Amino acid sequence: MTRLSVFNSPLLLGFDHFERVIDRVSKNQAEGYPPYNIEQVGDTALRITLAVAGFAESDLSVTVEDNQLVIRGRRQAEDNDKIYLHRGIAARQFQRSFVLAEGIEITRAALENGLLHVDLERPLPEPKVRHIPIGKTPSTGLAPTIDVSPRAPR
Fold first, then answer.
1. What's the pLDDT score for residue 92?
2. Which residues make beta-bridge pairs with 106?
3. Whole-prediction pTM value?
4. What share of the chain in percent tops pLDDT 90?
5. Over the chain, what is the mean pLDDT?
6. 98 pairs with which residues across the strands?
7. Rounded-to-integer distance, Cα 79 and Cα 1, Å
8. For the segment 92-105, what is each residue's pLDDT rounded down to a tens digit?
9. 149 phi and psi angles, rounded to 5 deg
10. How far is CA 139 from CA 63, 77, 119, 142, in A?
11. What is the DSSP string of the chain?
């Protein structure tokens, strides 16, 4: 099945970047592991929390790649001599991505009680006010003239 793109219109030239971002977001929504929360913790601050039970700090990596926050988890090899009667704690590797808006900065990442917290900040832009001076139209230095020719007698 072919997918029809909204951005194929000749009136939307240069918007292919948005299409790639939408594709990345839709692919990430299909993944369900690990579960996560996104909360607003201030006027300009957000926190992403992932449930990463069983992962150590050395098993996790947090990177920013092309305005995309990428969190990866890879557990070290376990003892294969354990015999599980039930194994409900996921131990598989994962990659979870979040598309970041322009200007978002990652301020910290911390592992606490099996939860990985990633704090993000969007600094408020400083208002830029430019004063535009109002000047006179450039002139040649000559006063405007009116051409008055004597009328010819009738």
1. 82
2. 120
3. 0.62
4. 36
5. 81
6. 69
7. 45
8. 899 999 999 888 99
9. -105, 145
10. 58, 81, 58, 7
11. -PPPPGGGSTTSTT-HHHHHHHHHHHHHHH--SS-EEEEE-SSSEEEEEEE-TT--GGGEEEEE-SSEEEEEE-PPPPPTT---S---S----EEEEEEPPTT-EEEEEEEETTEEEEEEE-PPPPP--------PPP--SSPP----PPPPP-
Neighbouring C-alpha atoms within 13 Å toward the C-beta of 93: 9
Q: Which of 43, 148, 49, 29 is nearest to 108 (CA)?
A: 49
> Position of tokens 């992962």?
55
Where residue 152 falls among pLDDT bands split at 50, 70, 90? low
Q: Are 115 and 52 in contact (CB under 8 A)?
A: yes
